[in-house]
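We treat protein structure as text, and this decision shapes the records that our systems exchange. This encoding replaces a full spatial description with a residue-level series of whole-number codes. Below, we set out a record of this kind in full and without editing:
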Amino acid sequence: MPLPPPPGAPRPSRRTLLRSALGAAALAPLAACSVPGARKDVPAGRAEIAAAVRDFWSGRRRTGKLDFVNYTQYIDADPADQSRHPTLEEFTRRTGIEITYQELIDDSASWFGKTQPLFASGEGIGHDLMVVGSDSYLTKYIELGYLAPLDHSRLPNFARHAGAAYKNSSFDPGNVYTVPWQSGMTGIGYDPAKVGRKITSWQDLRDPALRGKVGMWNDAVQMGNVALLAIGRDPETSTPEDWRRAADWLRGQRDAGMVRAYSTATYQSALQRGDLWASLVYSGDVYQANRSGSRLEFVIPEEGGLLWTDNLCLPVTAAGAVDALTYMDYAYRPEVAARITETVQFICPVPAARDVIVREAAAATGERRAALQALSTSPLVFPSESDQSRLRRMRVLERAEEKQWNALFEPIYQA
């Protein structure tokens, strides 16, 4: 199994892309809605979904080839040769399916822009399997009929090993079109040496003692959702009136001079330097910062934190759909999920992968053993059931709601 990167090594690029791209992506949904493509009647109810699955999968067979497209550095890699991916090589040995693996996705907005015209024209996009975040673009792919419904009779490992938090999400009820690839948490990161006390609540980011030392994001989606948590509302069931109250909470924080900077790109380095004492953060950034020598804390506030997910899905044009579904199920084998987690260090959707890493740590020595032990015991990679229970999914916005949402939350950090 590959070791996690050593302390001080560059973070996986997917984490950097999340910080830099989500803020921009939050501004783009309105433009994306103007591209060609008519909304399709999405199957609803068990009977319709079952019929859609039968229609798509009837007569399909393996091709022996799979084209998989992903974000950069978002899969296991051989430490001696980053172009080699041991789990992909093992998949080919097990199944005989040859994989073409490419890292072409920069962010949700640009990838949708590249693929949507090809889908709309009926052309194939040249890939059988792709990773899509649980954001408004995934909703667009589904609404426009661009994703294939999954045949869960061919996904026994997903049924057996996926954690409960990764099944039946609001963005894809019943996992009709997706299964999770990796997940992460959004909460509060802080330096206890600077703050001088424990942070437990979103309200702490309005504490006058932290004036000018708080970091927030230039991201309407994330900012709106955490503010909903701060006012005691579940984002998934929130109303436009709740959104207005959440925007008022954020404006009050801004107008009180609490926020030093609104940035998705610089908050981690600012926390590590001490320019920020507390910030809205991704859990994985705190894990990586502490492996590089920082002593930051991550907290899921008592009002709740956010759980986000990147997902495996099949383009409806996939020639190797059966091959792709075979890989999806393979990725849910605990030993495979463990290998991927050792490299990417996000939240693993397969809880049993932790037991695999524990066994590997017990058999290892020296630096490898210490790294694997730290990984297996980190609540930022394997959250406890208690932590999981305090995480909420982000609001799934309908097309008609996006304009109202952005009009409320974008001006807060653009002022």
